[in-house]
Amino acid sequence: MKIVAICGAGIGTSGILKVNAERAxxxxxxxxxxxxxxxxxxxxxxxDAQVILTSPEFVEAIGxxxxxxxxxxxYFDVDELTAKLEAALG
Amino acid sequence: MLPLPxxxxxxxxxxxxxxxxxxxxGSALEASGxxxxxxxxxxxxxxxxxxxxxxxxxxxxxxxxxxGPDVLAEGLAVVTLANPVVFGHAHNDPVSVVLGxxxxxxxxxxxxxxxxxxxxxxxxxxxxLAGARSAADVQQLLDPQx
Lengths: 90, 146
Fold this sequence. Notes:
Chain A: Keywords: Transferase. Chain A: This is PTS system ascorbate-specific IIB component. The complex is a heterodimer. Chain A is α/β, with parallel strands linked by helices. Chain A has helices spanning about 15-30, 40-45, 60, 80-90; strands at about 1-5, 35-40, 50-55, 70. In chain A, strands 2-1-3-4 form a four-stranded parallel beta sheet, covered by helices on one side. Chain B is α/β, with parallel strands linked by helices. Chain B has a single domain (about 5-140), classed as Mannitol-specific EII, Chain A. Chain B has helices at about 20-30, 40-50, 110-120, 125-130, 135-140, and strands at about 10-15, 55, 60-65, 75-85, 95-100. A five-stranded mixed beta sheet of chain B has the order 1-4-5-3-2. The longest helix of chain B has 14 residues, at about 20-30. Chain B is globular, with a radius of gyration of 14 Å. In chain B, about 45% of the residues are buried. The model of chain B has no long low-confidence stretch (mean pLDDT about 95). Chains A and B meet through α1 of A and α2 and α3 of B.
């Protein structure tokens, strides 16, 4: 399974999202490859991803995709990430 | 941990709006030698292009831009605001703490970011940072092992 965290620059925010998504997956006892990427590379980065994690600001720009787009409000809230990933993957 | 010297910490600042707040983070990164003066406006441009997504938790903005020639060394800056400012984020406004992040390559920052995530997974850290009275308090909060 592949999960992509998307932000504007592909550094900083998406990196935090990646780290905390990995924590959430460990809690759920799920294995997945989580990568961080920028909006400009979303088409290639997320082509075979099951889940895209991102901020509300990017949902429209991501456009049409086969992946589940999960919108994250608080990047440091592992509870929020765990609940949303569980709903999408469970 | 990403370098956070005392020169990169500005406490109790006045900022008229989010742009001024982000530019303060740019000044702090410049003062610490992590970036040149061009980096602050580039961080502002990220928000102008993509919106308030850098407001990643209640009260906290993580200002940053892509690696570039204006980044001299990786580094972190911390700015606390006397009066919180609105960035236009649906859930996390207003912002009282602005972090500035500068990295020279997309790959090099992963460890530092993981440590930053560790620190902020404790939700009491943002209000404690906002109320910090000295640079040493800020350094202690961000790097408890130091």
